[in-house]
Amino acid sequence: MSAASPVTPGLVVVDKAGGMTSHDVVARVRRLAGTRKVGHAGTLDPMATGVLVLGVDRATRLLGHLMLTDKAYDAVVRLGESTTTDDAEGETLAVAPPDALAALTEDAVREAFAAFVGDIEQVPTAVSAIKVDGKRAYQRVRDGEDVQLAARPVTVHALEVHEVALPEVRISVRCSSGTYIRAIARDVGARLGVGGHLTALRRTAVGPYGLDVAATLEDLADGFAVLPIADAARAAFPAVDLDDAGAADVRVGRSLDVALPALTALFAPDGTFLALYEPREGRARPVAVFV
Q1: Average pLDDT over residues 185-214
Q2: 99 vs 41, 114, 166, CA distance in Å?
């Protein structure tokens, strides 16, 4: 992919390097694709690496729907120290006495993490991108404000503890969108009475898009292709292939007498991705039309 190439609407799944913001990645892909119409589905902190899904051209309209999908992470939690940002980039708030950390057993650590599996109420980290009265929480913190965010319902589908080598614990998490792994580190540390924070985070999947289909920015510079919008839609949503009459109705946003299981991608007979429809009031009704 280069600035001289025509823009192909679709997704670019990037394996983000550490030290870059999500906006840094978007800016780089804009230059490579030769278009400013590039967006991302969910941010990654500069410290974090891994899957960042970008949309190019009209595929940017898919991103809002992809942001609602489940995500998966590998992470390292350090117990015994809490920080202002709940990760290694923040300032130290408190350090547990050495004997408190030494008293922790592996079983106790595993039980503490297990308590955060399922539907939970989670208080996001204060330096999150959540808006408070129109202003990002992290910006309010940078401006010296005391930010108190309300707890929000999230779902941790699975949390596997791979290794307990105190003070560090290696885990994998599969969770709903909006779950903060930093907050899990903080809350497990609080539950154990020693504090905790995140020292490493790697996102391994966003919905159906994993590291196996991700490319580094270096790969992209060498011409890594975008995932065409039709393929991206089939991978992320249930799919229905329409006949010519149904496709004509969808092109003008008409509702259909078609049973859908959920938010569904609809396709023309020639394979063109037409729209996202959802079941509503007994019919299939448009959510977003892409043609």
Answers
A1: 96
A2: 43, 24, 12
Q: Look at residue 5 in the predicted model and tell me its pLDDT.
A: 54
Mean pLDDT value of segment 236-255: 96
Strand pairing category for 273-280 and 118-122: unpaired
Whether 79 and 170 have beta carbons less than 8 Å apart is answered as: no
Residue 59's nearest CA partner among 12, 110, 127 is 12
Q: Are residues 138 and 81 part of one domain?
A: yes
Q: Which tokens sit at 241?
A: 């292939």
Q: Point out the residues that are catalytic.
A: 45
The whole-number pLDDT of residue 41 equals 85
Q: What is the pTM of this model?
A: 0.88
| Same-domain check for residues 96 and 166 | yes
The CATH code of the domain that includes 15 is 3.30.2350.10
Cα atoms found within 13 Å of the Cα of residue 68, Cβ hemisphere only = 6
